[in-house]
Design goal:
single chain; 912 residues; alpha+beta; 25 helices
Length: 912
């Protein structure tokens, strides 16, 4: 190191006096070029680090100065343009608002009156033109008189609307900046336009005036920066001693080679054979004494052959020398090449250790490959059994001859592992199939003395190099243990499957073909492989648990059976998606007056969140339907609910909002045989007429739930008795392979071929689909309409007088006798008399009574008031307040239904 540095210092001062430099000085002396000062010539040399830094510094400063000049020029030009826009707008507004301008525009010859004023203003304001024109853009004035009477070039629409406009265009006199201002009369009506402008040639004049100053400032900055760079480079020149980049790089390469070649012996020799430097590895391999540096190599205790080689300085490549019990590979090169100092450098390697190291490196490479394959090949699915099989397939036969995976029973079901429970042999792989190990599917409880039991109890891996000597192993199964040893299996590694704090099971690696037993290094590899597999198995367990929870939740939220009702014959189908559970749902809800509500909905997405959201919406529809709301009002309330859910979920960073939900709600009345339908972002229902023709009902499409802002609309149908109403979710008609129009047409064809019953219709629709499982859930609901027979309906108008109550009671008694329901006469007469009395006293006309004989006896009282009665407890001194209390006691259900022209109080009684 000292000699290298000294050589560099000695050579650097001689460079300025080379022949090339002398030649350059002569050329400077004869006047061909200005000779730089002596102190600056080394700085300008591109061969030195200082020269390269100086040139780079000058280039950077030059770029910055040029950029600054360009920026200043652009800024001055921008400011000039803005000034031109402001001046032209001010001149135009001044003339537009000048007195007499409106009268001049209305005069017979506006040019005669306006041309002198316009020219005077143009000259005083130093603009290029001032033009007055009518509302059609015909000029009355112009600096060039031949342009008067011609069409103005520019944008007039904003000015005609009463707003001034400024723009940059190419007009009749060239590129310019102009402003157009409206001329308003006393009523605010635009009667003319005034335009003033300045050409771009005049706008750029300011730039030309300021450009010399800007360039001068930039040049001065460049000169100052260049002088500063020269001073800095001169300082750098002194610090680097005139060394170039290549010389400095070579010096540091020698330095790094000596200091960092720790696994090779490095020896540096002078030209006379004196040892200059030997690193620690060279001392160890050659057995050199501590005072070896500075001594001749032949005086050192070296083998004769090795000493002769080092002292000769000849070139040697991997020349093998025996030193003690080692075989050393010696490489030697001379250092006096390309003018370097005389001497040589020799490196010494222990080939014996290299061979052992090569073997370990190959084994390490194989283990790294196996770990890489484990990261890629284990956990490709979320199936617990398949993940365990992937582990066994990976390690056999690369690591073990047989591998078994035993998981606790609760893990396979997705639950928390139970260490006290039995283990299920989930996967097994081997080089042969006749090994006497427990087969797949065997349930086992490992005893504590067995290797698996001890590994599970301690929670850490365990190696049994000699299985025949393993303590307590035969206690698990004496007969099978003997068979395993007789089969040739002689070594075992057991590793617990641990994911965090959870113990999922145990993995066993068995060896039979390879005679060497498992060692500690292989135990570490097995632990790493099992750790990666444990993460994948735990992920699969969590997915299985979530999937099971979602399926359970979804099945609990969907209707398990349809309610009893007489208005519709109903059949339904529900098909889950190929992966996971979704948010499709349906429901059938009996309403008052023998009516029935049909509802089908869809929540976008799959998984537990979609199922939970579906349950919330289904519960909300149940609650809202009990209010007897029209379909459009019910969807409006449901829309507000989804909006509130989204708001709540957005505030909680751990929750997800409802990304999309649709719903279709229909109410069928068997008395009037009418059906009201409304939908929120849902596909339209299909109607199959009794003759088999199919049509998709034109129901106004409202927005999906949660968007808000738009009302929903209700469509009223009057299907013939025996018609079938088909409600479905988008999974039935939408697919990645085609759009919804194609899906609707395929559904129409399937419905046209279906049988008469709802069950046949469901079967025909599902059979028409592809046999591949759907990517989205499918909910299908088919309802065939039925009407309530006329002999089951009784209806009477009621005058608004108390005496009419007795007549109603008599008519009701006669009708009940006709229906054979005399047992209900007393309760029915009491209910209707109370309801009719309330309608007469507190309601408004007209009043009407209706009785329906369906699965229940339904009594309804219509009146024109929207006031709803409330149930209350009357005190001892109250004269009234007990009527509704009696109705509630006698009826099974009662309630209020609002109509556009009033309300209905209804009550239901169970038929005997």
């Amino acid at each position: 190191m000292v000699r290298l540095m000294g050589r560099s210092q000695a050579r650097s001062p001689q460079r300025p006096s080379t022949g090339a430099s002398t030649g350059r000085q002569r050329r400077g002396g004869d006047g061909s070029r200005w000779p730089p000062p002596a102190w600056l010539r080394p700085v300008l040399s591109v061969r030195s680090v200082a020269g390269q830094v100086f040139i780079l510094h000058v280039v950077i400063v030059l770029l910055l100065v040029v950029s600054a000049v360009i920026a200043l020029v652009l800024q001055v030009r921008h400011d000039s343009t803005q000034e031109a826009r402001s001046r032209s707008l001010a001149v135009a507004e001044t003339l537009a608002h000048a007195p007499g301008i409106v009268a001049a525009l209305r005069s017979p010859d506006p040019t005669l009156l306006l041309q002198p004023r316009a020219e005077t203003i143009r000259k005083q304001a130093k603009v290029d033109f001032v033009v007055v024109m009518n509302t059609e853009g015909i000029r009355y004035t112009h600096p060039e008189k031949d342009r008067i009477g011609k069409k103005f070039v520019g944008t007039l629409r904003p000015a005609l609307a009463g707003r001034p406009v400024t723009e940059e265009i190419t007009g009749t006199i060239g590129p310019l900046v102009q402003a157009v201002v409206p001329v308003d009369n006393s009523d605010g009506v635009v009667v003319g336009l005034v335009s003033a402008g300045i050409t771009t040639e005049h706008v750029g004049g300011a730039v030309d005036d300021q450009l010399p100053l800007v360039l001068a400032a930039g040049g001065a900055a460049l000169v100052l920066a260049t002088a500063g760079a020269a001073l800095i480079s001169r300082r750098l020149l002194r610090q680097t001693h005139g060394l170039g980049p290549h010389e400095m790089t070579r010096m540091y390469e020698h330095h790094d080679a000596v200091l960092h070649a720790v696994r090779e012996g490095v020896i540096i020799l002078a030209g006379d054979g004196t040892l200059l430097l030997a690193n620690d590895e060279a001392h160890r391999l050659l057995g050199l004494p501590e005072d070896a540096e500075g001594r001749h190599v032949l005086d050192l205790p070296l083998a004769p052959g090795t000493a002769d080689l080092l002292s000769s300085g000849r070139v040697a490549t991997d020349e093998v020398h025996r030193v003690g019990g080692r075989l050393l590979a010696v490489n030697q090169r001379s250092t006096d090449r390309a003018g370097g100092p005389p001497g040589s450098v020799a490196t010494v390697r222990d080939s014996t250790e290299l061979r052992a190291l090569s073997g370990r490196a190959e084994a390490a490479r194989e283990r790294l490959d196996m770990l890489y394959d484990a990261g890629v090949g284990i956990g490709t699915s979320l199936d617990i059994t398949r993940t365990a099989e992937e582990l066994t397939e990976l390690v056999v036969p690369r690591f073990a001859d047989f591998t078994t995976v035993d998981l606790f029973e609760t893990v396979l079901a997705g639950g928390q592992p139970d260490g006290a429970g039995s283990a299920h042999r989930t996967a097994m792989a081997g080089i042969r199939e006749d090994a006497p190990l427990y087969p797949v599917g065997t349930r086992t409880r490992f005893v504590e003395s067995s290797p698996q039991g001890r590994s599970l109890t301690a929670g850490r891996p365990l190696v049994e190099p000699r299985l025949s000597e393993a303590p307590g192993w035969r206690t698990q199964d004496t007969e099978r243990s003997g068979q395993v040893l007789e089969y040739g299996i002689h070594s075992l590694i057991t590793v617990p499957l641990r994911a965090g704090s959870l113990l999922l099971g145990v993995v066993s690696f068995w060896r039979s073909e390879k005679p060497e037993p498992f060692d500690e290094d292989e135990l570490a590899l097995a632990e790493e492989l099992v750790a990666r597999a444990a993460v994948a198995i735990d992920n699969a367990r969590r997915y299985t648990r979530e999937h099971s929870m979602a399926v359970t939740l979804q099945r609990s939220l969907l209707p398990r059976s349809l309610p009893e009702q007489s208005a519709l014959d109903i059949a339904y189908r529900y098909l889950p998606a190929q992966a996971g559970v979704g948010g499709d749902w349906f429901d059938v809800l009996p309403l008052s007056g023998a009516r029935v509500a049909l509802v089908v909905g869809d929540v976008v997405g799959h998984g537990l969140h979609a199922a939970a959201t579906m349950g919330r919406l289904r519960t909300a529809v149940h609650n809202f339907s009990s209010l007897d709301l029209p379909p459009d009002e019910l969807l409006g309330l449901l829309d507000e609910l989804v909006g509130r859910i989204d708001s709540d979920e957005t505030e909680d960073e751990h929750s997800a909002p409802v990304t999309g939900a649709t719903c279709l709600y229909a109410v069928y009345d068997p008395v009037t045989r009418k059906c009201e339908v409304a939908r929120a972002g849902h596909p339209p229902p299909a109607l199959i007429h009794p003759d088999g023709t199919v049509e998709f009902v034109d129901v106004p499409a409202g927005p999906p739930l949660g968007l808000g802002g738009l009302p929903f609309e209700t469509a009223e149908l009057e299907p013939a008795e025996g018609s079938r109403l088909v409600l479905y979710t988008d999974g039935l008609v939408e697919d990645r392979e085609h759009d919804i129009d194609v899906g609707l047409e395929l559904l129409r064809e399937a419905l046209s071929r279906a049988g008469d019953s709802p069950e046949d219709t469901c079967r025909a629709v599902l059979e028409s689909r592809s046999p591949v499982r759907a990517r989205d859930d499918i909910a299908l609901l088919v309802a065939r309409t039925r009407g309530l027979a006329a002999d089951r309906i009784a209806q009477w108008p009621v005058p608004s007088e108390p005496a009419a109550v007795a007549e109603v009671r008599a008519a009701v008694a006669r009708k009940l006798a006709e229906w054979g329901l005399e047992d209900l006469s007393f309760s029915t007469e009491l209910i209707l008399s109370e309801l009719v009395t309330n309608a007469i006293r507190y309601g408004g006309g007209p009043i009407e009574v209706r009785m329906l004989r369906d699965r229940h006896l339904i009594c309804e009282v219509f009146d024109g008031s929207s006031t709803s009665p409330h149930l209350r407890y009357a005190t001892m001194t109250d004269e009234g307040g007990r009527g509704l209390f009696l109705v509630a006691q006698l009826a099974e259900r009662w309630g209020t239904r609002y109509l556009p022209a009033g309300k209905v109080i209804w009550a239901e009684q169970t038929l005997p």
